[in-house]
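User: Sequence for BTB domain-containing protein below. Tokens please.
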Amino acid sequence: MAETGQSSNPRKRLREDPKAYMNHSTLYFDDGNIILSCGSTLFRVHRSLLSKHSPIFRERFQPPGEDVKPEVLRGFPHVILDDTSEDMEALLNIIYDGLRVDVPQLTVENWPLISSILRVCTKYKIERPRTEITQRIRDEWPSTLPLHTAKMDALALNQKRTAQLIVQNGEAVVNPDYDPDAVDEELIVNPAVVISLLRECDLGTKELLAPLFYALSKTTWQFGGPAVGHHIASLSQADTERLIVGVERLRTEHAALVVQLPTFDAGHDPVCGVRFKVAWCHIAAGFLRSHAGARQPIEDWKSVAQTLRGDGRLMTTYHLCPQCAEMVLGCMDQRREKLWNSLGTWFEV
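Assistant: Structure tokens for BTB domain-containing protein:
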């Protein structure tokens, strides 16, 4: 209950008592010509600069009608905003720094600032920072298979560099590739919070969401238990259902492609046809025994094909001719690409 004689409206109390306000330490400019207040924090800024970059600010700064008394504080127009002072600070810093988002890589350490910038830039319709942040999300979770493959290869290399010790001949030794500046995998942003932010900012396109759902599916072993809160708590109910259904569809399709024998050219050597079937059955058995394949099929198809290309086993162990060996490897590449191109369908984004 409010004290006797005082207004119950905190914003009104602040207007009645200018001493309750506090100037922002860096964004209260002596030559500013308009004052913004967020809670008790004041920002004295330049009307023309904010109006130039934001149609929302431009509209808010229009003089009120003749029958409306304008808000004035310290002799300047006063606009009261419902944003937090932290969000407004992030937005104004972006505007005064030339709309640059000076963050080369997304990590859990800078994600709170990045998400704050994206939210307020969406609210005030400032497009350039939105575009830059969206591009960083694309860079982190690429939408094309070649770029995704390159990203996964880079992460694998980075994992080697973040390990200070490795095991050789049963003993722990110093990793010669250790790089103290390499980004630890634990600093990678959880895809679930990125999905939620994109939805909030009306950026939920198939191109952005499909690789994020796939990345999230790789870290989701099962649904139920304490791990759920860590991985998917930030998702909406609808997106949680999309993830559950999508994981089931993706893993089912992966298994179906593994056991489906590729079409063999009937005009080729019949002996090769028998060897072709034997080779594929052994490959399929290895796939189905692999827990990693169920969780990250895109990577597993690449890994198996890469191993077969490197060791020449299709010709030395299964005695396939070069043409049939390439046919097997080509089929694996095609099925991997089919899985990737179907992610948007499986996760319904």
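The chain has three domains: 10-98, 138-253, 257-344.
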